[in-house]
Design brief:
Low-confidence stretches: 1-26
Structural class: alpha/beta
Mean pLDDT: 94
Helix content: 25-40%
Distance between the termini: 31 Å
């Protein structure tokens, strides 16, 4: 059972892992016979960069620093919340990166990336110099309106997969039939734009199957959302009037939240939840701020190489980077990691970078286990912007037959399995 005591144990355990660094690397000097690239963050972006940099430049020493020994993916985390998969389904490790690709993996917490000395400083005092660094710090949250650190014990956001994924699943399973599941969806920009609405879809599937008298309210902090027409078409077809979406303009804007009583104050009323899934506003991971990589909430980069515009020789990829028009998604981070690896391998050899590189994003969403929708796009990156390639990619059609939706659901599973193989295997 994922009760509050066990949740705390998991959190303490993950924090303890963050301080298990490899002491033999203390103040290690740069190798004389090769280049060294240090990658901080072992998610979609960082792990992909490490793997592909060794592919593009086998002679380069690649060090990946990630505080956790296992990584839980947000993609397909919603299937865990809805009881379709076990938490083990979204758990991955770094053993293949170490054994097959010869990436040096250190499980430690990074204090900062110091651009002035070209070194990564760990919390335990170890200093690892680099020729180039890649930072993929993911997201952190902007706590406000009464939702503070610790509130996730009562109203989990589950927008960093792991213990909170299991906690939200337990809360959903414990909700009475006839209860109300309330989600607060964040304002733009945030990680995985379709993610909250896929979650609502699969929660609705669970409730329809197990607690059919229940209802769902989405209090959205914006007036539209990704793949909205497709989601709402699926909701109406599969779940009737179970799901109520309120835009920011028409009753969705949250003024205050009390996580302990599960009550939210909007401009119109006080909404009481039996399960409250509060997803806060987001910003770049704290390491990006500590390392001087941010401008506002996010990290400006040269989008052709993903090198920081603020700190030389440091590249920032994934959710933390400003890579508009690409969404903040796992596939985007994977694509950016490959481009960063390619460009860094060329920069280390003093070769011209690829100009302009091509990137891609593909996102599948499950509205039910056998009902999928998708969006895909191809991009071209220049130094100051990323633009969509006209005619490439596309969106699932409206009013498609169920056979089409069934196939898209199958493709979604295949997409996830192939992505995990590409990142971690």
């Amino acid at each position: 059972m994922m009760n509050r005591r066990n949740f705390n144990k998991l959190l303490v355990g993950s924090i303890a892992l963050s301080f298990t660094a490899c002491s033999s690397l203390t103040s290690v000097s740069l190798p004389k016979d090769k280049k060294r690239v240090v990658i901080v963050g072992g998610g979609f972006g960082g792990a992909t960069t490490a793997k592909y940099l060794k592919k593009f430049s086998p002679e380069t020493e690649v060090i990946l620093i990630e505080q956790n020994k296992e990584y839980y993916t947000c993609p397909f985390g919603n299937t865990v919340i809805a009881g379709l998969n076990d938490i083990e389904y979204i758990k991955h490790d770094y053993k293949t990166l170490e054994s097959k690709y010869k990436v040096k993996v250190i499980h430690a917490k990074v204090k900062k990336v110091d651009g002035a000395t070209n070194s990564v400083i760990l919390e335990n005092g170890d200093v690892i110099p680099y020729h180039r660094a890649v930072v993929s710090p993911g997201i952190d949250f902007k706590y406000d309106k009464g939702y503070v650190e610790g509130s996730e014990m009562y109203a989990p956001h589950a927008y960093k997969a792991g213990p909170q994924t299991s906690l939200l699943r337990e809360q959903l399973e414990g909700m009475k039939d006839g209860g109300t599941y309330v989600m607060v969806a964040p304002p733009n920009p945030f990680r995985c734009p379709p993610g909250p609405y896929e979650r609502i879809s699969l929660v609705a599937h669970y409730l329809k199957t197990h607690k059919p008298n229940s209802k769902i309210i989405i209090l959205d902090q914006k007036n539209k959302f990704s793949k909205q027409g497709l989601f709402q078409e699926g909701w109406e077809k599969l779940y009737g009037d179970m799901i109520e979406w309120r835009s920011a303009e028409f009753g969705g804007k949250v003024l205050e939240v009390n996580p302990k009583t599960l009550e939210l104050t909007t401009e119109d009323e006080v909404v009481k939840a039996d399960v409250l899934n509060y997803i806060p506003s987001q910003k770049a991971g704290q390491l990006a701020f500590d390392s001087g990589l941010t401008q506002g909430d996010w990290c400006p980069v040269n989008t052709k190489t993903f090198e920081s515009r603020l700190v030389k020789n440091v590249h920032v990829i994934g959710d933390a980077s400003i890579a508009t028009k690409m969404p903040k998604s796992g596939f985007s981070a994977n694509s950016q990691g490959k481009i960063a690896a390619l460009q860094i391998s060329r920069l280390l050899r003093k070769q011209a970078v690829v100009n302009p590189p091509k990137l891609a994003n593909t996102c599948y969403s499950l509205i039910a286990p056998k009902y999928g929708i998708s969006v895909a796009a191809v991009y071209e990156a220049h130094e100051d912007k990323i633009v969509k390639v006209a005619g490439a990619g596309g969106l699932s059609p409206m009013n498609a037959p169920m056979s089409f939706r069934n196939l898209e659901a199958e493709y979604a599973v295949a997409w996830y399995q192939n992505q995990m193989a590409d990142v971690f295997r």
